[in-house]
RNA sequence: GGAGGGGUGGCCGAGCGGUCAAUGGCAGCAGACUGUAAAUCUGCCGGGUUUCACCCUACGUUGGUUCAAAUCCAACCCCCUCCA
């Protein structure tokens, strides 16, 4: 499909599009002039993770294509606690925690989007502003009548649960109504005519466009991204250690860079398109690299992706650390450190650097030859390390012992 | 309400009186091979320690039988299937 709007052409070429409610009409609207679009984000944690990055990049492209992005923080919905996909009720956060999380998350968005008061400057807003003001009876009379239970039951999120006879609470059932109302509110306040999100949000988004049509008689659109998976089928960004955080307080620059550097060969092109701003012809060139050459492309991916999220200086420093550490077998400046006043055993060093959770685990590393001091296998548990020496666990985890 | 089946380590899933910290698979960690990749092969894989050993905690919950229980019994909780 050929799009006439810069916005959809970009998204399409880069692999962001899964479904659109009315692609031709959205394309026409985006070609005609600036549109306003939003994506909603959870604020249960002080940082977002890689899983949110596709949406963030989409907002970035939106703005670059001359449109206005709205970032909706789910402050109100967080207070309710979205139970989907969870076995236990989420720990409910109080206002103060939510405010702190929002402030922290905003700093991430400021790297990807330009905020301000201009016509295409990004806006961040908390849906608690309107959700907590709602009154049940008026709300049900004004909006509840537009939602058909018959239809809500056909949405995957509900239908699958019912078919599997899994419990679905009334609270959860209402979640999609709140989200639909968010969209309506944004349509009224900002003239927002597009909601974007992951493919799992399709049902919620369609509910919003329907509500806007019924209440306001206006057309609004929805667009979802595909679920991004890795070449081996695993969900993107879920490592055994947990989420890959965007915020540096949660994950050091070097580790963030390394995450991207360790991308599977088969994913390099896809990730370059989704997670960097590099021109497509440049990406095509990098993607075509074969054999060990593809490592160049991975380094570019890592540096570009890190530059977006953490700043170019941090990205270049991480790249340099990786180069000296891996290519030269040395030790770069970004490696984690453990300060000690006097030499300690390799066991304590591994624990101090966070490479082993217990002495038992550290001993296993030594026994299996995975623990190295300045690149040489430690040999025994009693080997000593002092300031200035590099300690490694396996091939990818390296750290420095420093005086202190 | 009646009948039957089941709840096991991060997940799936064996075991059904001692030799069980519990087969196997997945995930994870480490090693070899490589390109800081994939695939493959090997080892580790509940926790701890003074580690060729020892000590804790574990098989839904609580009691009981037994020299000895994940395995038998009872009660309870939860899940599933069939009948009403």
UniProtKB/TrEMBL annotation:
UniProt keywords (A-Z) are:
Aminoacyl-tRNA synthetase, ATP-binding, Cytoplasm, Ligase, Nucleotide-binding, Protein biosynthesis, RNA-binding
One GO cellular component term, please give it: cytosol
Motif 'HIGH' region, chain ranges: 43-52
Compartment list: Cytoplasm
Catalysed transformations (reactions): tRNA(Tyr) + L-tyrosine + ATP = L-tyrosyl-tRNA(Tyr) + AMP + diphosphate + H(+)
Gene Ontology biological process: tyrosyl-tRNA aminoacylation
**InterPro entries of this UniProt entry?**
aa-tRNA-synth_Ic (IPR002305), Rossmann-like_a/b/a_fold (IPR014729), S4_RNA-bd_sf (IPR036986), Tyr-tRNA-ligase (IPR002307), Tyr-tRNA-ligase_bac-type (IPR024088), Tyr-tRNA-ligase_bac_1 (IPR024107)
Domain of life where this protein originates: Bacteria
State its Enzyme Commission number(s).
6.1.1.1
What is the enzyme's class at the highest EC level? Answer: ligase
- Outline the subunit composition: Homodimer.
Question: Do you know which HAMAP family this protein is assigned to?
Answer: Tyr_tRNA_synth_type1
Q: Write down what this protein is called.
A: Tyrosine--tRNA ligase
Record organism: Sandarakinorhabdus cyanobacteriorum
């Amino acid at each position: 499909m050929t799009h006439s709007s810069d916005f959809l052409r970009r998204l399409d070429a880069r692999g962001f599009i899964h479904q659109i409610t009315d692609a031709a009409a959205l394309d026409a609207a985006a070609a005609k002039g600036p549109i306003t679009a939003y994506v909603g984000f959870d604020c249960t944690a002080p940082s977002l993770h890689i899983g949110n990055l596709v949406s963030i990049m989409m907002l970035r492209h939106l703005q670059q294509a001359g449109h206005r992005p709205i970032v909706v923080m789910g402050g109100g919905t967080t207070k309710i606690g979205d139970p989907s996909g969870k076995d236990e009720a989420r720990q409910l956060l109080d206002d103060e925690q939510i405010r702190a999380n929002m402030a922290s998350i905003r700093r991430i968005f400021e790297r990807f989007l330009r905020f301000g008061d201009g016509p295409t400057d990004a806006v961040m807003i908390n849906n608690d502003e309107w959700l907590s003001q709602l009154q049940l009876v008026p709300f049900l009379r004004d909006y509840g009548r537009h939602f058909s239970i018959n239809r809500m039951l056909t949405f995957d999120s509900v239908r699958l649960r019912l078919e599997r006879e899994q419990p679905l609470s009334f609270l959860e059932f209402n979640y999609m109504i709140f989200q639909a109302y968010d969209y309506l509110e944004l349509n009224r306040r900002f003239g927002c005519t597009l909601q974007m999100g992951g493919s799992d949000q399709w049902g919620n988004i369609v509910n919003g466009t329907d509500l806007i049509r019924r209440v306001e008689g206006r057309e609004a659109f929805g667009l979802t991204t595909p679920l991004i998976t890795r070449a081996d089928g695993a969900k993107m960004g879920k490592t055994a250690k947990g989420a890959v955080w965007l915020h540096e307080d949660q994950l050091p620059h070097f580790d963030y860079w390394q995450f991207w550097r360790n991308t599977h060969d088969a994913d390099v092109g896809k990730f370059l398109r989704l997670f960097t701003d590099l021109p497509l012809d440049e990406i095509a060139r990098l993607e075509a690299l074969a054999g060990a050459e593809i490592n160049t492309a991975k380094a570019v991916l890592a540096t570009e992706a890190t530059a977006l999220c953490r700043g170019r200086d941090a990205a270049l420093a991480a790249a340099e650390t990786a180069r000296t550490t891996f290519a030269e077998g040395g030790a770069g400046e970004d490696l984690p450190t453990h300060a000690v006043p006097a030499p300690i055993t390799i066991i304590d060093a591994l624990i101090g650097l966070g490479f082993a959770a217990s002495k038992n685990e550290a001993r296993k590393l030594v026994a299996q030859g995975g623990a190295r001091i300045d690149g040489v296998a430690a040999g025994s548990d009693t080997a000593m390390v002092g300031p200035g020496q590099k300690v490694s666990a396996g091939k990818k985890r390296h750290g420095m012992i420093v005086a202190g």
